[in-house]
Amino acid sequence: MKAYQIVKWGEPLEEREVPTPEPQGTEVLVRVTASGICHSDIHIWDGYFDMGGDNKLSLEARGMQLPFTMGHETLGEVVALGPDATGVEIGGKRIVFPWIGCGECDVCQRGEDLLCLAPRTVGTRYAGGYAEYCIVPHAKYLVPFADVDEPYAATCACSGVTAYSALKKLKHLRPEQHLMIVGAGGVGLAGIGMAKAVVDAKLIVADIDPAKRAAALAAGADIVIDNSDESAVASLLEKTGGGVHGIIDFVGAPASTGFAMQAAAREAKIVVVGLFGGAIPVPLASLPLRMMSLVGSYVGTLDEMHELMALVQAGKVKPVPVTSRPLREAGQAIADLRDGKAVGRYVLVN
Ligand SMILES: [Zn+2]
Ligand SMILES: [Zn+2]
After folding, report:
1. Which ligand has the nearest atom to the CA of 158?
2. What is the Å distance from ligand 2's center to 121 Cα?
3. What distance in angstroms lies between residue 159's CA and the mean position of ligand 1's atoms?
4. Looking at the 3D structure of the chain, how many domains does it have?
5. Which ligand does the CA of 300 lie closest to?
6. Which CATH number characterizes residue 85's domain?
């Protein structure tokens, strides 16, 4: 089969002919028909996450070996089953839930695979969807999507469930309070499109790019704001009557999280999702004095994936704009995403 692989960190992906895997045990082989490109793929491609200062979290040191096939927003058709695989039929179309743990430890047993110390993530640890076929360890990780548009449904496996899980952490907001989403890129737009279905609060979207603010308004934002504007914080404090009670930072850069902390009301909860990286000084006294919470949210659970697909199928989610590109353009598409050319998501189709 053809796979589009990282052969050297940060160098263009290469189209390579590799053996089509044969499913063993409970494994399922999926013929990939749609594979989203996630912003985090750019970091994986580079081979590290920026932890601030000169600190880098190296993926090689974490055990990743090249050549590697990325792709953790994968959807396709079941074409072969391992001898012990049950729960899915040949020909079925499913989303691949990629955030898979070892399946045996305590956290995996209670469905919290994200906390597992021995993850088997499809597309970051195991070969993913930038290829014609992909192996899934067990049929329970295959999620039905009924008649939802395939390229969009694929994006639900990362950008969708990431946005959903972050929003769920702010479900306690009240209708008169404000929810602010910082960053209207791929994941941010996914969050804007489902915010009202998850959190009953007024929706503010902050982005430095006028095109993304326009996309946010079209996707359902009540108020948009340019957070690069010097008067942005003052104007937010005025518009909200003292600050924002729930903020999701889909960028995760010093400027965006710093902005979120300045715009926060007393008792605010700030959820950092974006992996742009860097570091900021946190005035520690502001946490107790303002009773503020600064928390992180990483992708989402299998249960959340099913909850999200139920909302999508019920028509309660405004899908992110998706641009389909042929699988063979994988290398160019991820380069275009890195260069900031994409509004919404690129999805490779085959
Ligand atoms: Zn992702
Ligand atoms: Zn585990």
Report:
1. 1
2. 11
3. 6
4. 2
5. 1
6. 3.90.180.10
Categorize the per-residue pLDDT at 343 as very low, low, confident or very high, splitting at 50, 70 and 90.
Answer: low
Question: How much distance in Å is there from the Cα of 110 to the middle of ligand 2?
Answer: 10
Range(s) of the domain holding residue 96: 2-158+300-349
203 belongs to a structural domain: yes
What's the pLDDT tens digit per position in 222-248? Answer: 999 999 999 999 999 999 999 999 999
Record the pTM: 0.93
Q: Are 215 and 311 found together in one domain?
A: no
- At 268, which CATH number? 3.40.50.720
Q: Do 204 and 255 lie in a common domain?
A: yes
Buried b (16+ CB within 10 A) or exposed e, 257-293: bbbbbebbbeebbbbbbbbbbeeeeeeeeeeeebebe
Dump pLDDT digits (tens) for 97-121.
999 999 899 999 998 999 999 999 9
Ligand that comes closest to the CA of residue 112? 2
| Cα dihedral value 254, 260, 261, 265, nearest 10 | 180
Number of CB atoms found within 10 A of residue 35's CB: 33
Q: 300 in helix, strand or coil? A: coil
Residue 198 pLDDT greater than 90, yes or no? yes
Shared domain for 154 and 7, answered yes or no, is yes
pLDDT value at 52 more than 80: no
What is the 115 CA–ligand 2 centroid distance (Å)? 7
- Rounded distance from Cα 41 to ligand 1 centre (Å): 7
Beta bridge partners of 134: 30
Q: 77: buried, middle or exposed (CB in 10 Å: 19+, 13-18, 0-12)?
A: middle
Average pLDDT in the chain: 94
335 CA distance to ligand 1 middle (Å): 16
Distance 180 CA to ligand 2 centre (A): 34
Asked whether residue 165 is domain-assigned, the answer is no
